[in-house]
Amino acid sequence: MKQTRRVALTALGCAAAIIPLAGGFAPATANAGDAVAHLEPVALNGVPGSGTAFVTVRGTRVDVSMRAGGLLADAPHAAHIHFGADARHECPAATDDTDGSGTLNTTEGGPAYGAVRVSLTKTGDTSPASALAIDRFDTAPGGELAYQRGSIKVDQDVAKAITEGYAVIVIHGVDHNHDGSYDGATPSDLNPALPTEATDPALCGRIVPQG
Ligand SMILES: [Cu+2]
Known about the structure:
It comes from Nocardioides mesophilus. The chain is α+β, with helices and mostly antiparallel strands. The chain has one domain: Superoxide dismutase, copper/zinc binding domain (Immunoglobulin-like), CATH 2.60.40.200. It has helices at residues 2-25, 110-113, 156-164, 196-199, and strands spanning 32-41, 50-58, 61-69, 79-83, 115-119, 145-153, 168-172, 201-209. An eight-stranded antiparallel β-sheet has the order 5-4-7-8-1-2-3-6, covered by helices on one side. It starts with a helix and ends with a strand. The structure holds copper (II) ion (CU). Copper (II) ion (CU) is lined by residues 80, 82, 116, 170, 172.
């Protein structure tokens, strides 16, 4: 009887020792989950469009499936996941028009959505270095953008931001003067070789975790 009791106590002690150890090795830091962004016209820029993006996070890989309509047809539309730790984690408002031009350029939206962290290119590099790789973004035939790409590598802080609802998707390219092409005298704030129409933010949506 005495012997049996001692064995039972030892077994309990063992279990108690293992539980906190297992907790320490549990993948608590791995980000995972589904999220959705409802893309709406950026304030002041007057794009008559909308869209939806689905984002699945698995560790530091993300799958993105996105559709949008009402964009300038047959013109390249840069699209990114933006995030900044000190940003507002939202789409810009009319009050972000700091130069008073009456429209919002990409830089003016920065305090709202942060920097480019992932370039949603169709092929090749997806880092911020490809932010304006115009020949690798969707050209929205008929104004309709359809994008799907899996296993996009992202930084740990970006994966975490997406799962916590702090990242924002932005589709760029606005035809302010409605003449069917990117033109105008105002240079882009991102690349002065391009007109601002080519890079101004068109549609935007915060990526909201699901479930
Ligand atoms: Cu962007």
